[in-house]
Write a structure and sequence with these properties.
The structure holds two protein chains of two kinds.
Chain A: H1 4-8, H2 11-41, E1 53-58, E2 66-72, E3 75-81, E4 87-91, E5 102-104, E6 109-112, E7 117-119, E8 125-127, E9 136-142, E10 145-150
Chain B: H1 6-29, H2 38-42, H3 53-56, H4 60-63, H5 68-72, H6 81-84, H7 100-108, H8 111-115, H9 125-131, H10 133-139, H11 148-152, H12 169-180, H13 183-186, H14 195-200, H15 203-210, H16 219-223, H17 232-241, H18 245-252, H19 255-263, H20 269-272, H21 302-333, H22 339-358, H23 364-421
């Protein structure tokens, strides 16, 4: 039990307490301001999102007559290098039941493993259950990077 | 001319001008190229004989330059009805139903003639028709069966690609149903008349009529059009497999192939029915109320156990996907960036779609292999969702701590100011 008169007669620890509270509070506030700034400067693992144009690959990464899946926003895309070296890109989501399609180097066509759906290299549905073509994208090679973007209505 | 008053001269001039204009116009509109006196009378006659210029101009044959006489004979250049419709001029009158296929075939089975209009048009319609149930019955003297004009219409016959054509894919089922859904008309044939009603409930009708997929099957896709015949038990699986390739391949390697054949059961139809093919759900398989397996399998046999196991596997994957989807949804709504795991979840969904096809092998291990891949992918995405939620909680706690810190600083400041004031 502390005597009230004693507490009044001891102003030094109280001042000390206020100073500690104040400086501690300011330090913690400063930390709360700077921590998010620091976290912002360190990039997260996720790559660019919902963009109209993405880097689907690098020149030389794909051999002729092969394909790869790339991420286009929150959907998969398919980048193809045809047997004669041209690049083609299209949505990789099958228009039948939304499976992910792949390039078949033996058929030279795009194929869906779920129900044997087939698309040509322009994304047109040519065989099996797909009811609609795949959305085809525009491919631009800029320097070492292959950019893919949605086609704009003319 | 000099003796005529000037007003008469100018009137004569106007007459000549009008005549010249009329001749010019009529030439440019095609009048007089081939006179067709038939329509002069028939456009005013009541129905079985009435054909208006408006109706006939819709007909693909009229558009290609053919006229009444190409089918009905006669002399359309004569305005005299007796001369125009004289047997001497080759007039045939109303074409007897029995003669219609042969009449159409006289052009449509002639590749050299048809090539002049459309080089890719088939010319086997008549020979196909003669093999159809319709064709065989007609040959046997039954005139109630369909002939060319019943399906294709007459005098306003449009190309099948025309959406208004009675044989456009979207309209085929309705055209067939005009006879096949009419119980009174079909009573003498002793075949069901519920096909159209059943088909209208089916996934195929939904794809064609509702979703507008013109490649989805209608009556003629399975039965043939000109050679229309029921596929029969032996070949129905071949019909389905023209589109459902994987399911058919798997079925052919399955124990059901032989079992069904020896029991005289048709392939696909035994489980999926024929006209009323519903969109299959996972409940089709297994041992539940809606399961088709229990039609043959009973508790205690190996098939019953396998059906139950396959159903369990599908449910396991569906639940795993549902859980991952839910946790990722919660994370997304909390403002977390989970687009990558959401994208990766498509792998698990692919696996479920594949497993639903693999069911047709009726092999627990093969379905299990697909399910395992999917469950692994879903588990990874679930973990990503958990991590995202943990990160969200970390941020919330961080925010709370920083708010407490700010509050402490404010309290300290207030006390400090009071001290200075005192």
């Amino acid at each position: 039990m502390i005597n009230p008169s004693e507490r009044l007669s001891a102003p030094l620890p109280r001042r000390r307490f206020v100073e500690v509270l104040l400086s501690g509070g300011f330090l913690a506030t400063a930390a709360a301001f700077f921590y998010p700034v620091l976290r912002y400067l360190i990039p997260p693992k996720a790559s660019d999102l919902g963009a109209d144009s993405v880097v689907a690959g690098r020149v030389g990464e794909l051999k002729p007559n092969s394909g790869k899946i790339f991420r286009f926003g929150n959907r998969p895309g398919l980048l193809i290098r045809t047997a004669d070296g041209q690049y083609r890109a299209m949505s990789a989501t099958c228009t039948h039941l939304s499976c992910t399609v792949q390039y078949r180097d033996d058929l030279h066509e795009v194929w869906c493993a779920c129900h044997n759906g087939m698309y040509d290299l322009n994304g047109r549905n040519i065989s099996g259950p797909p009811p609609r073509p795949l959305e085809s994208y525009e491919v631009q090679v800029r320097g070492e990077e292959i950019f893919v973007r949605r086609r704009r209505e003319a | 001319m000099a003796i005529l008053p000037s007003s008469t001269r100018s009137r004569a001039g106007v007459r000549w001008l009008l005549l010249a204009a009329f001749l010019g116009l009529s030439a440019s509109f095609g009048y007089g190229q081939a006179k067709n006196s038939c329509l002069d009378c028939h456009s005013t006659l009541p129905d079985p004989f009435g054909v208006t210029q408006d109706k006939f101009s819709q007909d693909i044959h009229a558009q290609k330059g053919l006229t009444c006489v190409n089918c009905h004979g006669g002399d359309a250049t004569s305005d005299d009805a007796d001369q125009a419709m004289s047997r001497k001029a080759g007039w045939k009158g109303k074409i007897d139903r029995k003669q219609i296929p042969a009449l159409c075939g006289s052009c449509h089975s002639d590749p050299a003639y048809i090539r002049g209009f459309n080089p890719s048009l088939r010319t086997d319609q008549l020979s196909q028709y003669l093999t159809s149930v319709h064709g065989k019955r007609l040959a046997g003297g039954d005139t109630k069966v369909a002939v060319c004009t019943d399906c294709h219409s007459v005098h306003d016959l449009r190309a099948p690609s025309d959406p208004r054509s009675t044989v456009n894919p979207v309209n085929v089922a309705t055209t067939c149903s005009r006879c096949h859904a009419d119980a009174a008309y079909m009573s003498s044939y002793k075949i069901p008349t519920n096909q159209f009603a059943e088909y209208s409930k089916s996934v195929h009708h939904d794809a064609l009529a509702v979703r507008g997929d013109l490649s989805a099957p209608t009556c003629t896709t399975c039965h043939g059009n000109h050679g229309a015949t029921p596929p029969g038990v032996a070949s129905v699986a071949n019909v389905c497999s023209t589109c459902h390739v994987f399911q058919s391949q798997l079925f052919d390697t399955s124990p059901h192939k032989e079992a069904f054949a020896s029991a005289g059961l048709p392939g696909c139809v035994t489980c999926h029915s024929n006209h009323g093919i519903l969109h299959p759900t996972d409940e089709f398989i297994g041992t539940g109320d809606k399961a088709v397996c229990t039609q043959c399998h009973t508790q205690g046999d190996a098939g019953y156990a396998a059906a139950g196991k396959i159903r369990e596997q599908l449910a396991q994957l569906a639940v795993a996907i549902g859980n991952a989807d839910q946790i990722l949804g919660t994370a997304e709504r909390s403002g977390m960036e989970v687009s990558q795991p959401k994208l990766d979840l498509t792998q698990a969904r692919d696996a479920l779609t594949k497993a639903r096809v693999t069911i047709h092998s009726f092999n627990v291990d093969r379905v299990g292999a697909d399910v395992k891949l999917g469950v692994a992918a879903a588990a990874k995405d679930y973990t990503a969702g958990q991590q995202a939620l943990a990160e969200r909680n970390y941020r919330r706690i961080g925010l709370a701590i920083s708010l407490i810190a700010i509050a402490l600083a404010l309290i300290g400041l207030r006390l400090y100011i009071r001290q200075i004031e005192s």
